[in-house]
Write a structure and sequence with these properties.
Number of domains: 4
Structural class: alpha/beta
Subcellular location: Cytoplasm
CATH architecture of the largest domain: 3-Layer(aba) Sandwich
Bound molecules: adenosine-5'-triphosphate
Protein name: DNA-binding transcriptional regulator NtrC
CATH superfamily of the largest domain: P-loop containing nucleotide triphosphate hydrolases
Shape: globular
GO molecular function: ATP binding; sequence-specific DNA binding
Pfam families: AAA_lid_14, HTH_8, Response_reg, Sigma54_activat
Organism: Sphingopyxis witflariensis
């Protein structure tokens, strides 16, 4: 028990108020409970609480927005309870300097832990003031419990400049979250600059990140600003950080440690003025264990990890996401659609290996393909099975390039580099492609060459080299 402490609860639901009182009565000397903003303000006129616990939606207004004018000592910790459960509420709660934000339904043990910490005044970092007009949900749709932890972390990141690592399967929304972290953070008036480590040839990564001087390497005809310079004052989003080559990792670590960098070919030390937000779909601990990612850089980036749950772990958000994608489609000219209840249930049951991105693609396809304004379960079934078991692959070109990347990594990790890696890959890819096309055209080489868009003689020669029998591929 914290001696002599007073807790004020602002909650209009009498049942919740009673449960909270029962839970916390032994944690304080005095427990006051009010049910509206007017009652709260009247109580505050005569008392000074050591902690305020407040609901957001109250009969006479918003429990967060009305608090700053209520004459409370700004140092008083506030715990916000809300069933609104959006990033907006989490961010606004942080904006008033609240101690904690607990989405409803909340866990009573969690509430007790939070209350004890607040009463001992182990305060969180001072919170940034968020302009309520700016605080929408920053493109993030969904209120499932699994997303609440994400919103709370984003809200806590708003008041500091720490590096962030966003983890999650492909298509779970890592880039949307990176943008939300930027948009709610201290650097929101600065630029948001993104760079994808997997999309840039390894020999160019350092020049892309740090810039280069004129003549630094062949083809460097003029000085070029790197992403660190472009993002100055803002946030730098390093997407697919797990794919960053080791040499670039070493440089990045040095920059994060010293806050200084120099351009490729330059000698002057420049000040790094960015918040680094990194993301990857890869398992970082495996990359570290395999020696493919520097452990010290991993720990430096992993101070505040944000782990995005796969869509199958937040199925209750699927309805809201479907609505969101239908609306987005409508704005870009697609027809408006409703979903029959069983059609929606089928979408909710699906496992979504490509996560939110795959759901977005499927919804937009359904909006186009469905003949009726109401999408039926048959429409959904047809689209989900269109590409065989497991539904639509999220992005075929993407999965091919990732498979190639994994394969190439293994080859390059081997001791022997005989310069045949390109021709080996070509043989693997061509053989698979030729076999599929030959099967499709029942061994007709002329037709196969036509579909492949290559010369018939070239095809015949390659089939010989690859030892493929066109009649029995
Ligand atoms: N919670 C969300 N609310 C609304 N849209 C979302 C949400 N999550 C993801 N999306 C949408 O899904 C698509 C994929 O999201 P995003 O590109 O952020 O995923 P990612 O995790 O970065 O994927 P990858 O690992 O393949 O780069 C985007 O169109 C994005 O707008």
């Amino acid at each position: 028990m914290s001696d002599g402490k007073t807790i004020l609860l602002v909650e209009d639901d009498p049942t919740i108020a009673m449960i909270i009182r029962e839970t916390l009565i032994d944690e304080c000397a005095r427990f006051a409970s009010v049910a509206s903003i007017a009652e709260r303000n009247a109580w505050l006129a005569d008392h000074r609480p050591d902690l305020i616990i407040t609901d957001v939606v109250l009969p006479d207004g918003d429990g967060i927005d009305s608090l700053p004018g209520a004459g409370v000592d700004p140092e008083t910790p506030v715990i916000v309870l809300s069933a609104q459960n959006t990033l907006d509420t989490a961010v606004r709660a942080t904006g008033i300097g609240s101690y904690d934000y607990l989405p409803k339904p909340f866990d009573l043990e969690e509430l007790t832990t939070s209350v004890r910490a607040a009463l001992q005044r182990v305060r969180a970092e001072p919170a940034a003031k968020i302009d309520p007009a700016q605080a929408d949900s920053h493109g993030l749709v969904g209120r499932a419990p699994a997303m609440q932890a994400v919103y709370r972390t984003i809200a806590r990141l708003a008041s500091n400049d720490l590096a962030v690592l966003i983890l999650g399967e492909s298509g779970t929304g890592k880039e949307v979250v990176a943008r939300a972290i930027h948009a709610t953070g201290l650097r929101r008036s600065g630029p948001f600059v993104a760079i994808n480590m997997a999309a840039i040839p390894r020999e160019l990564i350092e020049a892309e990140l740090f810039g280069h001087e004129k003549g630094a390497f062949t083809g460097a005809h003029s000085r070029n600003a790197g992403r660190f310079e472009q993002a100055a004052g803002g946030s730098l989003f390093l997407d697919e950080i797990g794919d960053m080559p080791l040499e670039a990792q070493t440089r990045l670590l040095r920059v994060l440690q010293s806050n200084e960098y120099s351009t490729v070919g330059g000698s002057q030390a420049l000040k790094a003025n960015v918040r680094v937000i990194a993301a990857t779909h890869r398992d970082m601990r495996t990359l570290v264990a395999d020696g493919r990612f520097r452990e010290d850089l991993f720990y430096r980036l992993n101070v505040i990890p944000v782990t995005l749950p796969p869509l199958r772990d937040r199925r209750s958000d699927i309805g809201a996401l479907v609505r969101h994608f239908v609306d987005a489609g409508r704005h870009s000219g697609l027809p408006d659609r409703q979903f029959a209840p069983d059609a929606m249930q089928m979408l909710e049951r699906h496992d979504w290996p490509g996560n939110v991105r795959e759901l977005g693609n499927v919804v937009q396809r359904l909006a186009v393909l469905s003949r009726d304004t109401i999408v039926s379960v048959r429409d959904v079934e047809a689209v989900l099975t269109a590409s065989g078991e497991g539904g639509l692959p999220p992005a075929p070109a993407d999965s091919i390039s990732r498979a190639v990347d994994d394969w190439a990594r293994e080859q390059l990790a081997g001791d022997e580099q005989d310069g045949s890696i390109h021709s080996q890959l070509e043989a693997i890819v061509e053989a698979a492609l030729f076999r599929r096309v030959l099967l499709d055209v029942r061994g007709n080489q002329l037709e196969a060459a036509r579909r492949l868009g290559i010369n018939r003689n070239t095809l015949r020669k390659r089939l010989g080299q690859l030892d493929i029998d066109p009649a029995n591929p």
